[in-house]
Amino acid sequence: MDEGRDVVFVSYSHADRPWLDRLQVLLAPLVRNKRLVLWADPFLQVGEDWHRGLSRAIDRAGSAVLLVSADFLASRFIMEEELPALVARGVPLAPVLVRECLWDYEPVLQRVQWAHDPGRDGPLDRGGDSPSERDGRLVRVCRSLIGMVEASAPPEMESTPPRTGASVAETLVSSVRPGAVDGAPPLPPGYVVREDLNPLLAAVVKTETGAVGVTGNAAALGLHGQGGIGKSVLASAVAWDERVRAYFPDGVFWVTVGERADVVAVQVDLLVRLGRSGVEVRSAGEGLRLLREILAQRRVLLVVDDVWSEADAAAFRATGPQGRVLYTSRDERVLGGVGARVQQVEVLPEAAARQLLARISGTTVDALPLEAGPVMTATGRVPLALALVGAAIRGGMSWPRLAAELQRGKETFLDHPYANTFKAMQVATAALSAPLRDAYINLAVYPPDTAIPIQAITSFWGGTPDAVRADLNALAQAELLRLVDDQVTFHDLQHDYLVLQAEDLAVLHGDLLAGYRRLLPDGGRDGWWQLPPDEPYIWNHLIRHLRMAGSRADMQATVTDAAFLACRIAYHGTHAVEADLNIATEAIPDASSVASLRRWLGRHAHLFTDLAIDDVATTLLCWLDDADSIVATGRLRLFLPPHHLHARWGLSPLPEASLRTLAGHSGWVRAVAFSPDGQLLASAGDDGAVLLWDPTTGERRARLTGHPDGAAGVAFSPDGRLLAIAGNDATVSLWDPTTGEQRARLTGHTHWVKGVAFSPDGQLLATAGDGAEVLLWDLATGNQQARLSGHAGHVNGVAFSPDGRLLASAGHDGIVLLWELTSVNQHTRLVQHIGGVNAVAFSPDGHLVASAGSDGTVLLWNPIIGERPVRLTGHTAWVNAVAFSPDGRLLASAGHDGTVLLWNPNTSEQLARMGGHTGAVNAVAFSPDGGLLAGSSDDYTVSLWNPTAREEHARSARHSGRVRAVAFSPDGQLLASAPAGTGTGVSLWDPTTGEQLATLNGHFSGVNAAAFNSDGRLLATAGNDATVFLWDPTTGEPQARLARHTGAVNAVAFSPDGRLLATAGRTDTAVLLWDPTTGERAARLTGHTAWVNAVAFSSDGRLLATAGNDVTVLLWDPTTGERRARLDGHTRAVNAVAFSPDCRLLASTGFDGATLLWDSATGKRRARLPGHGAALNGLAFSPDGRLLATVGEEGTVVLWDIDLEAVVNRLPLGQPLQSVTWAGSRIAVAGLSVIMLEI
Fold it and tell me: Where are the stretches annotated Disordered (predicted)?
């Protein structure tokens, strides 16, 4: 048996789901004790691909349980795909006959050993059996199954010290103010102080690791994972203890996780309780990062109850040096995985057990009868079981009857690990009245480890709230549930017992849904979106209940209903929608609309952060426009505000090959690299940050900040234990990617470091930079081993050959040098590029070297002979990066033209063009399995593609490059756009059709601004070439060239009468006024002390506003040149100004992210509109002056109501936006393309 085959796979038909649930209750603890994992498709993680997850489970399967029935045999998927895959893998099969069928006609089932004799024993489902008879059969089948799968148990592995990345714990100091307790359950009735308490209190306060774990004592119980032993009660005693709370004045916070909980939902709830609401959390890693940010300086105790996996435990290892985490778990290995100091809890000593039994039964220890001894033996002195039988005595059951009932339970549950508690549950439920017993068992419909509001149970049970509350109080008195703060909770063993007893869970789920349909205005005919927004339970569990009720059509219709989608995103975030779609995909894997929507959401989820319902609807309508077959977007009009934005042209859809867009950088992203195991993706940006991502879920796992001037390269070591970062500060830093700790910093370069690469054996690191040299470092010592000189300019990239014998370096001098590392001599010079070489890569077999050139080509070289390379042409600008797939069958090249091309390196055939970026693509990397391709871009994002999709992404001339500015003609019939960066041509567009009408060429560098005069007969453009051109927009001919600035010109504006033209200088910090008729300079306005970024005339021409990097706005009399006012209020550079059409207001905005409204007559500030969360670059008033549009680096267009000073609508466009202009109902924005919107 392979060491990794640790899964007991369960194959079943969804019609037999109740039997899967019952089997899981009884089999899971037996399997867990053998260090195995029970797996069925409902156990897929949120966000996990259904087919991939199933295939991975089959690959790990050491044995398989088959729940055989007529539906099992009729399932095409089971019989044609799942079962043959298990057989092909040689997985031992253990069939169980659930319902009568013609199993003996199936050859596979004839050849294998069954878990029971189907001919003699018959099926599990006999009909008419009592629950105890059915449970007895299940227990016997489970005992047989565990014997069959026992050989699958993997060998005991030596544990390694965990690396959690958590803060080092500091000594705690007691405070006079005890912390408040948030979420911890009260101590139960009859609570007995345990001997374990004081050692645990001391451990929490004094532990060196910052984490303490409580688990059942394996030696005392004979197995790991025992439930009901009192771990949670003990943790609750710690949480409420005044002595402990004095050490945590910032509070004690309790969360319950559970076996299959939505960990992200638990994190979000905790974030809200900690004061951080309204955040979008899409993954456990992202949630952990936010929790660590909040808790870093707080003195808190976080109690994490009932964790079942190391991953779930790690998701809450979030406290800072003055905080602690207390875990409870059935599995000691889970606690060790997060570095917790383990405290084991044993069953109660006999004296404590007698005390607990006496208190709950309503007597004294001395008054306990002789039967109490056998009762304690029968319950194993497990606290939960003792509480249940004690409550039965208190409720009127006699001691002899109690002893007899427990004996009958023993005959049913035999020696099952949970027999003690299940016997007590059987006794406790038998003591209930028949109606209350039935109502209680019906609570099995709710998911485990979930607090259920009384309001939800009232809807399900019916009756009055007072009657429901009375029944729940009676059940709480019987110790069958907990009722705290109007919420019902179960111990998970209580819930397991209910699942065993429930007759037909599908009917129960249908009944629960019927209760909620009564809340809908039309009984649900128009869909579930009409649920009350504040309904406390059903939103997060609706899709599960629909699935469990067998309502697949309703489930599919709901998750693809645009109205439900909008509500769900707005109320609960995209993570909640992804969880819904995961459930639906698992239940209906062949539903193409569900699968398509799930893929679409993965690509677009980054757009929906912190949006109100009307903004979510606006965004969905805009971005789903090209995917209308997925959902009916007309339903979104239910939520659209009176003023809302919609894209007319220019917004490129994200291509199907695009799997996710990772947004988190605030500058150009220069490099990407996958870890060797494919579990992490690193991206390095000009913002100085290196972000670590989970490439499967898109979650951000960590942010590494060590190069404030920017990071240009990243690489993982071959063993994944080190991450090297190349910095613009002339240093290279080495990090532990698991803990996020910096391990070393290498200094030796004198300029930017652009590239890093590890040798295949991990012993050397090569670094390249602007200093024309390649440095080799010995990683064992951190010493510089060699300095390779040979390039005549800076070195852009380095790569080792697969055997480690050669090192290739790519130079700005147009040369690729190959170095023989055994002698550190130059081996070969590869010279064929016309211009610089930006990157280099070896094929996996070492037979090819690919080089990326500024000449727009990729060259493929034989590294041995180094002559006559194959030239690949397809990019329209510089090629910035190249990467081979792990199998060598694909070569990816990244271009300054915003595309990634895929090639067959053997035939030189171009296979695909991957789109999705709206700026230059700077780097590419394949995942180790070749299933993902990552690209990083100037648009501040990282894209993940499916490299096998072979998608040719449609491109348009109007999306050919980044745009700096846009301007409408006065009649709105023309739109001018100014290209940024190296672009020189000013484009004229038809605003209605998006047709490009003309290109005006005259500038020889980037163009920063454009403006029409009042009659539309002149167009002024300002450029980095220190000139202003005046154009006839009808003929496209230049009318004048104004050149009196001493540096770049940032802005232009005509006066309303057309007699003046104002231009803003960058390095000369001056504003020049021109006569546009003669081209003569009329005045020079000086007053700014830094770049001038914006100019604007009032509509009456009496005022000129200017704004600059000196954080001021100046008001001038353009006739006299006199400065009228200085407006102070911004804290960073001011990028844009605009007057309202009636001249009464002036709006200004800038890098501080705020928009300020000023009274233009008095210069006093009228209002401050809160920022977008990033720098703002442009603003424009509506023609009637009632609305204001603002745009900025985070890529959202925001409409404001000026009178209300409130947001009217938000539309995320997913790209940095530089400028905005307004004409009639049209709004044009400039970013990485020209986008036309309509309001």
Answer: 116-135
CA 1144 – CA 545 distance, rounded (Å): 57
Radius of gyration for the chain, computed over Cα atoms and rounded to the nearest angstrom = 35
> CA–CA separation, 762 vs 1182, rounded Å?
60
Residue 993 CB-density burial (10 A; 0-12 exposed, 13-18 middle, 19+ buried): exposed
User: In Å, how far are 846, 965, 1221 from 1230, measured between CA atoms?
Assistant: 45, 6, 9
In this structure, the dihedral spanned by the alpha carbons of residues 662, 664, 666 and 667, taken in order and rounded to 10 degrees, is -40
Structure tokens of 969? 């003609």
Q: What is the pLDDT of residues 697-709, one digit of tens each?
A: 777 888 898 899 9
Q: What share of the chain is helix, strand, coil (3-state, %, to 5)?
A: 30, 30, 40
Confirm if 65 and 10 have CB atoms less than 8 A apart: yes
Question: 3-state secondary structure string, 204-232?
Answer: HHHCCCCEEEEEECHHHHCCCCCCCCCHH
All residues at 6 or more sequence positions from 343 whose CB lies less than 8 Å from its CB, including other chains: 196, 199, 200, 203, 212, 213, 214, 215
Q: What is the pLDDT of residues 799-840, one digit of tens each?
A: 999 999 999 999 999 999 999 988 766 778 898 899 999 999
> Which residues are 1147's β-sheet partners?
1138, 1157
Distance, CA of 968 to CA of 1011 (rounded, Å) = 8
Q: Where are the domains of the chain?
A: 7-152, 181-346, 504-640, 663-950, 961-1238
What are the helix (H) ranges across 1065-1212?
none
Place 225 in a pLDDT band, splitting at 50, 70 and 90.
Answer: very low
* Closest to 1054 in 3D by CA, of 1075, 1029, 1085: 1075
- Of 383, 380, 427, 386, nearest to 404 by C-alpha is 427
Q: Which fold has domain 7-152?
A: Rossmann fold (3.40.50)
Alpha-carbon distance 859 to 809, whole Å? 14
Length of the chain: 1239
The residue type found at 443 is L
CATH code that applies to domain 961-1238: 2.130.10.10
Sheet holding 689-693: strands in order across?
Answer: 669-674, 681-685, 689-693, 700-705
Q: How far apart are CA 112 and CA 93, in angstroms?
A: 7
Could you report how far apart the first and last alpha carbons of the chain are, in Å?
65
To which residue do tokens 């109902």 refer? 1225
Fold match flag (7-152 vs 181-346): yes
Strand ranges for 835-974 from DSSP E:
837-842, 849-853, 857-861, 870-873, 879-884, 891-895, 900-904, 909-914, 921-926, 933-937, 941-945, 963-968
Fold of 181-346: Rossmann fold (3.40.50)
Q: What is the CATH number of domain 663-950?
A: 2.130.10.10
582-586's contacts with Cβ under 8 Å and 24+ in sequence apart are 582/44, 582/46, 582/47, 582/48, 582/50, 583/543, 583/544, 583/547, 583/555, 584/543, 584/547, 584/555, 584/556, 584/559, 585/50, 586/41, 586/42, 586/44, 586/50
pLDDT in tens, 909-958: 999 988 777 778 999 999 999 999 999 998 888 999 989 875 544 343 34
CB 557 within 8 A of CB 524: no
Whether pTM exceeds 0.70: yes
